[in-house]
Task: inverse folding
């Protein structure tokens, strides 16, 4: 519940501090006194966008602070998720500066507006005469029916199943889009993969092929040079024969000269080396004949290899093998994706069956409870001087699953005997809609723990005995949750447990709005003023006392 509200430098309010209690509190004041300022200040607490024109003339910023007692609520998950201090007495603050900045705080910790709204929307509900338009919205009608049917748990369970179904359907759709893309590219990818595999890059030594081809391109020149070596060294009357002749002649001289002996040894060693050179040249010459078919195969492999490197902008065989492996994963990945799609499709079918079952059960329970709820609403509306009211929930089952299930709702209303009910948005007047909303709020308060509710002139368009009935109903509702009402009607104000008045004053230089609590005697005068105007008579005071009692 709302414990206190502090407002500083907000519009015409310089400084106000209000303290609230459980029960029914009424707020009154003359037209133009500034009750809308109070509502705008509470709107900031609810996370409304800041209007910087609201900053008053008593500083550079406006501050609105609200203290809530959370003993009846469990917000531990919220505070934990947002890393906020979880106190039973929670302080909400908004600051708006002339520099165009707006800040929000929960227990003195800065938070984003969406975080503030997440909390305060569950703590405070401002309901004006214009909010009765919600009654014309199908989702609102269905939500009210679910609350009054005690289907909140079933609805959450269904919504959980529906959300899971939609998430898996979106996941399945993404996978199907991916597989379609893979299928569209599969033929080309498989062609490329086959092209790469034909090269056998894991086992083919393309560098050796290139060396062999280069050697084959120069084989005739090589053979000529090798033949020249053999002929020069080993041919008739060639170098080797002449060197042997020289060696023999030196040996026959039989000289004992050391230099001659050394020269003879060197000639003998040179002959051995020349003969080795000639032998190696002849061996190489015999092996330089390359099979033309083998050469053609090597040339074809190298051409394909270089073409593939150029096509895929690769530099070497290592990069080619890496590219081949990735392409292989893409091709094989399509097969894995198809298996995943098949498995996920079965999951979606199971979730869909579960959601359909829960949606059918939800619809059946709604239909079963709707008649009794209509009767209860009509009884309350009779007390609110709508004795001939017929209010019915017409429910049909759609074939398409939605967040709310299969149910399609239409709230039908008739305020006059002999008139068939028609959709409420086409029949009810503003005063009738207000009373229907009050009746719904009363029933809702009996089925759920409502936050603090503020009715802003919900009694507009009624008077006399109807106003008296509304006042009594508000007092009754105030026993179930903290309720506040802004009203111009004495019958509504007289039934309150607590009374605030909004007053505007001017000294000719400045205008100021104040809000204060009324004591019992002041309440009598204020209710008398609402009845008779500014000239409060003794009879008006007596009537005010009678209304209060």
Result:
């Amino acid at each position: 519940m709302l414990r206190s509200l502090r407002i500083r430098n907000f519009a015409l309010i310089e400084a106000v501090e209000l303290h609230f209690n459980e029960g029914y509190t009424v707020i009154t004041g003359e037209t133009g006194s500034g009750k809308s300022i109070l509502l705008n200040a509470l709107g900031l607490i609810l996370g409304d966008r800041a209007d910087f024109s609201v900053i008053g003339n008593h500083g550079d910023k406006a501050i609105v602070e609200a203290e809530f007692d959370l003993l009846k609520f469990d917000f531990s998950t919220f505070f934990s998720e947002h890393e906020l201090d979880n106190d039973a007495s929670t302080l909400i603050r908004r600051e708006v500066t002339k520099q165009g900045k707006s800040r929000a705080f929960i227990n003195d910790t800065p938070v984003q507006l969406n975080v503030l709204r997440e909390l305060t929307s569950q703590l405070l509900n401002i309901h004006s005469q214009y909010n009765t338009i919600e009654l014309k919205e199908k989702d609102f009608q269905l939500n009210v029916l679910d609350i009054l049917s005690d289907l909140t748990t079933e609805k959450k369970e269904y919504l959980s199943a529906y959300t899971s179904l939609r998430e898996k359907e979106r996941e399945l759709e993404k996978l199907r889009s991916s597989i379609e893309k893979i299928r569209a590219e599969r033929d080309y990818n498989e062609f490329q993969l086959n092209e790469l595999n034909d090269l056998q890059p894991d086992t083919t030594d393309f560098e050796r092929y290139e060396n062999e081809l280069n050697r084959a391109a120069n084989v005739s020149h090589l053979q000529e040079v090798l033949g020249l070596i053999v002929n020069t060294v080993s041919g008739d009357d060639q170098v080797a024969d002449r060197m042997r002749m020289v060696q023999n002649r030196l040996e026959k001289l039989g000289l004992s000269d050391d230099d001659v002996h050394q020269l003879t040894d060197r000639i003998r060693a040179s002959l051995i080396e020349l003969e080795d050179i000639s032998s190696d040249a002849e061996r190489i010459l015999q092996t330089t004949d390359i099979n033309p078919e083998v050469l053609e195969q090597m040339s074809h492999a190298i051409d394909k290899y270089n073409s593939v490197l150029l096509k895929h902008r690769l530099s070497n065989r290592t990069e080619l093998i890496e590219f081949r492996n990735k392409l292989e994963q893409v091709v094989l990945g399509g097969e894995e994706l198809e298996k995943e799609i098949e498995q996920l499709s079965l999951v979606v079918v199971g979730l869909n069956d579960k959601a359909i079952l829960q949606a059918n059960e939800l619809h059946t329970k709604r239909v079963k409870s709707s008649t009794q709820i209509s009767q209860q609403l009509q009884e309350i509306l009779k007390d609110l001087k709508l004795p001939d009211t017929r209010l019915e929930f017409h429910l049909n089952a759609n074939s398409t699953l939605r967040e709310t299930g299969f149910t399609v709702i239409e709230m039908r209303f008739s305020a006059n005997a002999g008139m068939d009910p028609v959709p409420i948005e086409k029949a009810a007047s503003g005063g009738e809609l207000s009373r229907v909303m009050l009746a719904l709020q009363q029933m809702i308060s009996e089925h759920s723990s409502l936050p603090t509710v503020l009715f802003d002139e919900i009694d507009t368009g009624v008077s006399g005995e109807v106003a008296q009935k509304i006042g009594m109903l508000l007092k009754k509702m105030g026993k179930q949750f903290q309720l506040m009402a802004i009203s111009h009607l004495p019958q509504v104000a007289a039934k309150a447990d607590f009374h605030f008045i909004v007053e505007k004053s001017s000294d000719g230089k400045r205008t100021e709005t104040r809000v204060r609590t009324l004591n019992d005697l002041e309440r009598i005068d204020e209710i008398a003023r609402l009845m008779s105007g500014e000239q409060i008579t003794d009879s008006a005071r007596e009537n005010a006392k009678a209304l209060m009692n």
